[in-house]
Every structure is written in structure tokens, then in C-alpha cells.
Amino acid sequence: MRTLRTLCGGEWVTTGEWIDVHDPANVRAPIARVPALGVKDVTRAYDHAERGFARWKRTSPFERSRILTAAAALIRARLDEIAADVTAENGKTLAEARGETGKAADFLDYYAGLARQGYGTLLHDARPNTRTHTQREPIGVILVISPWNDPLITPARKLAPLLAAGNAAVFKPATETPLSGLHFARALHDAGLPDGVLNVVTGRTAEIEGALLDDPRIAGVTFTGSNSVGNRIRRRLADRNVRFQGELGGKNASAVLADADLPAAAKAVAAAAFGQAGQRCTATSRVVVERPVYDEFTRLLVAEVEALTTGPGSDPATTLCPLSGPRQRDSVLADLARAVEQGATVLTGGSADTDGERAYGCHVRPTVLADVTPESAIWREEVFGPVLAVRAVDDFAAAVEAVDDSVFGLAAAVFTRDLAAAYRFTEEVECGQVAVNTTTTTGWDVHLPFGGFRDSGTAYKEQGEEVLRFSTRVKTVAVHFGG
């Protein structure tokens, strides 16, 4: 078992207390351990971040760009090693882990380029001999809290822009998946990031949550995770001048219209629903199908799902990875049991997969449910697992109504050959991400704004230039030059 240290103040430190990291494909023994930092360690991390910010905000944007570019190159050079650890601690397939690692480097490259451009606008001024402009400045020390499902790409999409803009960070990776975040921090450290600009707090959230959120030096908090935790953070920050960026839950739906290419739609929906075992915030978990093609589409969908191969992510033959841990597996199985109690019919899957060596892992068979009502919990609540519910609807209007019948509004897709219907769908659905004839999950590049409506998130988007609205503040400067 490997023993790792964490980055604080430019040094790799430990405390003597440890957190074990397990492989969800085989939970019998830990694969690594990381320091379990305490309250005093969190305070020291903010001390370092405060000093790091004072230096980093005055560092040339060209030097910031150079460091981010160098870190991206290091991640690509270490891709095999990093991807193996992503798979080992998270469970996703090596193909998924390699894609995540490459995309993390892409985020660094993109924001390295953006750092060189500067952020601001030249404005006309009514006063003679006066020129006015706006400039964006870093806001300070930002707390980054990332989830276990995308343990490398989520820190990358959060940390790269805030560092490029000149902020400092205290980074709390998920307790279940700290190795990936430490890889990202090491690449930045080895690329020459000044001491204290990035500090990684590995620890048990319940023990250090107060110290993380209550420090008076926090200028912003960016969080990806559940609505219950996100709302708790929001309430805790409510009476302080602290920005909150939340990427929260989803109950994403795809609509299959009667004129759709059904085989292509079935393949895309299966990929969106069962990639990463459904453990993506944008994963499709609901499908509404126009009634004339419901039976045929469902047959094609079930065939796609039954072709998936359950197994450990390290096995090249695996196309459906395990869930992240025993707690997540048991939660998904409980949701399935409740769905059946509420009248759902299992078309395929519906149980844990404990065959052979999979008995020691957190495997759930990919599941498609029919006879699901709009009132059932499986239709309304986020499951975060390999579970897909299918319903028939009468027409386009009913399809849009069903998609929007949710407190969430993260991602949706429509499958149709009708261009007018496609555009109507994109205009009428209440989601922050909308796709036509492709998945709700894959293909969103680093420069595309990302985030949801309603209970799926806050007004601050991630990715692209939009994220700068969160990590920078606007200063207006008027210059009178004579007369």
C-alpha cells in the first residue's frame, strides 16, 4: 500500500493520521493512504494561501500562462500513471480515465492561453479627453470542493481558471478519491507554481467542514456535489460577502421523437446513461419516447444495454465499471427496490452483480425500467447509478412537458430528423445544456460554458470565459489625459 503526502505551503506534508483509499472493484484491502488533516492544518492552509495570493496576483500573466502550460505537459507525460490511479480509486474504465486525464491537461492549456489575453473592455466616456476601461482582477483565496465521480477533471475545470486569473486556492478533494487531485497538484508544483498558491486539504469532511467554510479569508467557494450539501454550504455563507458557485444535481432526460433514427438514438442514450456507470451529473436517467416508436426504441435500447460488460475498470473488456463504493452501490440498489415497489417493471438488470471476483466489488447490473409514473421517486430523484427509466408520451408537447417536469435543469437531449422540432426543443426546455441527436454527457469542450438551471446549480457557470464572472471582480478605470 502506498503512503502519500499532501501539498501545503509548497511542501509535501503529513500529520500522522491517515485515510485509506479503496478500489471499488475490490474493496478487500486499501490501495493507498493519504494524510487526514485536522482543523489546525486547514487554518495553516489558509495562512499559506493568503501569502501565496499576495505574490501570485502580482505575477505576470505570461508567467502564470507558462506555468499552466508546463503543468499540462507534465500531465500528458504522466498520463498512463495518472489514469491508472483514477481507475484504481474511482473504478471507471481505463478508457474513461485516460480521457479524463487528457481533458484535465486541455483545461490547463486553454486557461493558459486565456491568461495571456487579459480581461477587460474599452468604454466610451462622455467627458472630454477621458478614456474609460474595465479590468478584471482576482478575488482572492477560493475554496475548491470537488466530488469523487470525476476526481481529476472537476478540479481541473475549477482550479485552472481561478489560478490563471491570479487567485489562490485551498483545494479539498473528495475523501474517496484524493489520489487524482494530488496528481494535479503535483503537476502544478513541479511546473513551478509558487509556494502557497495551491494547498490541498486531504481529510474527513465531517471533521474539518467548519474550518474549511468559516475562515474569514475566503473570497469564494466553488463546489460540485449533492444538493443537500450544496444548500448547506449556501446557507453557511449566506450572511457573508463570499461568492458561491455550485454545480449540483440533475435528473437529465432525453426525448426520442417518432421520426428519429432509432438505432442511433438507442446507442446514444445507452452511452449517456451507462457511461461511468451513470455516475455523471449529466448522465441520462429518463427517456420519453413518442408512443408510435416506443416498443421498437425500447427493444433497441435493451439490446444496447445488455451488450455492456460489467467488470473492473482496469480490464480492457469492461464497458460498465463498478460504482464508487459500497455506500453508493447500496443506495442505488435501495432506489431500485423502491421503484419496483412503486410499480416499475425491470426490462433488464435490476440487481447487484456478484458473479466471481465481482463479489468483492461494487457492481450493479445496468438497468432499464418501464411502467414508471411521473409521481414515482425513480422518475423524480437523482439516483447516480446505472439506472434508466423509460416512458411513452403522445406528442412533442408532452415530451417537452415531461422533460421539464423536474426541479432540476442540467442537461437534456432530443432525437429527431425535424429541424423545426429540434430548435423548438432547444428553446422550450429548461436546461443549461441541450443536445440534438447526441448524448447529454459527452462532447462538451473546455471552452463551452457549463452549468444548469433551477436546482441544478447557481448562476455562475463553469468553463469557457463565463467562469471568470465567478473568479474575478470588475474594476472601472477612467483616465483624463489633458485639457
Query: What kind of sheet is the major sheet?
Result: 7 strands, mixed
Q: In angstroms, what separates the terminal alpha carbons?
A: 73 Å
Global outline: globular
Percent in helix: 25-40%
Mean pLDDT: 96
Q: Please report the number of helical segments.
A: 15
Structure class: alpha/beta
The strands making up the biggest β-sheet line up spatially as 15-16-17-14-13-19-20
> Beta-strand level of the residues, as a percent range?
15-25%
Unreliable sequence segments: none
The Rg value, from CA coordinates, equals 23 Å
How many beta-strand segments? 22
Structure write-up:
The chain has helices at residues 39-56, 61-77, 79-90, 94-117, 153-164, 178-190, 205-214, 227-237, 262-274, 294-306, 326-341, 377-380, 396-404, 419-428, 468-471, and strands at 2-3, 6-8, 11-13, 18-23, 26-35, 120-123, 130-138, 141-145, 168-172, 198-200, 218-224, 243-247, 252-256, 284-290, 345-348, 367-370, 387-393, 408-409, 411-415, 433-436, 453-454, 472-480. The longest helix is centred in the first third of the chain and has 24 residues, at 94-117. The protein has 15 helices and 22 strands. The model has no long low-confidence stretch (mean pLDDT 96).
Sum this structure up briefly.
The protein is an alpha/beta fold and 483 residues long. The protein contains 15 helices and 22 strands.
